[in-house]
């Protein structure tokens, strides 16, 4: 029986896994150890991995059903992967005037991945990384819930929020943009799904805060002004430094996070540098 080495980050979440080659089939015991570490640390990363796309998909299947063609944004998948229906390309690289992937080089605001149901696991494999920037930050939403001030806890228990499924509908898009504008609209009529602000994880049974995107959303039953104030307080609480861990990417990294109990964001990097990652998305469950 092989035993992996789990090295906690020392922060609120995150751990490095050593002693496993993800390019080779994993034993049932190794998969169980990885899943146990994932449930404990929420984000895992593996250094120095050299994965083919089939091996990346195989690793993704350790966490559940890999989704196909469920993204609302053009990721130009066919440009840079053998499996354009199941592997997304995250990149700022442009070839012959066309991006080979999505999400560019800007700063990504805090968010969870949510199309059309919150995903469970997401796996990234780093193929090219910039010398600076482009780091991914993660927040522990179990601890964020457990440390809510009493008055804030009373305001969110039993409440739902509408998750905005259309980027740009509100004053902030997913990425910072000086050209972003806010048109007058009724937030209570946004087209996104209604989900509980406090959700229960389908596998661990633990409660976590669950919001989709910093600067967006609407708390059902409140005025727009009261909703904005409550969401602003929640995001300020959720993004406190002691809840956050940041990953600095190296070529060959494979990283998997639990989207049901974390939030994540990305720092910007120079547009003159190349960044290219392949991503696999695993099906989640409707939040309860």
Describe the structure.
The protein is an alpha+beta fold. Helix content is 17%, strand content 26%. It has two domains: 5-138 and 247-283, Clavaminate synthase-like (Double-stranded beta-helix), CATH 3.60.130.10; 140-179 and 186-239, no CATH class. It has five helices and 19 strands. The strands form five sheets. It has an eight-stranded mixed sheet with strand order 1-2-3-17-9-19-4-7, with helices on one face. Mean pLDDT is 87; it is low at 167-183.
How is the topology of this model organized?
Elements: E1 5-8, E2 15-18, H1 28-41, E3 43-46, H2 53-60, E4 87-91, E5 94-95, E6 98-99, E7 102-103, E8 108-111, E9 121-128, E10 136-140, H3 141-146, H4 150-156, E11 160-162, E12 194-196, E13 198-200, E14 207-209, E15 218-219, H5 224-238, E16 244-247, E17 254-258, E18 262-266, E19 276-281
Parallel strand pairs: 2-3, 4-7
Antiparallel strand pairs: 1-2, 3-17, 4-19, 5-6, 8-18, 9-17, 9-19, 10-16, 10-18, 11-12, 11-15, 13-14
GO molecular function: metal ion binding; taurine dioxygenase activity
Keywords: Dioxygenase, Iron, Metal-binding, Oxidoreductase
InterPro entries: AtsK-like (IPR051323), TauD-like_sf (IPR042098), TauD/TfdA-like (IPR003819)
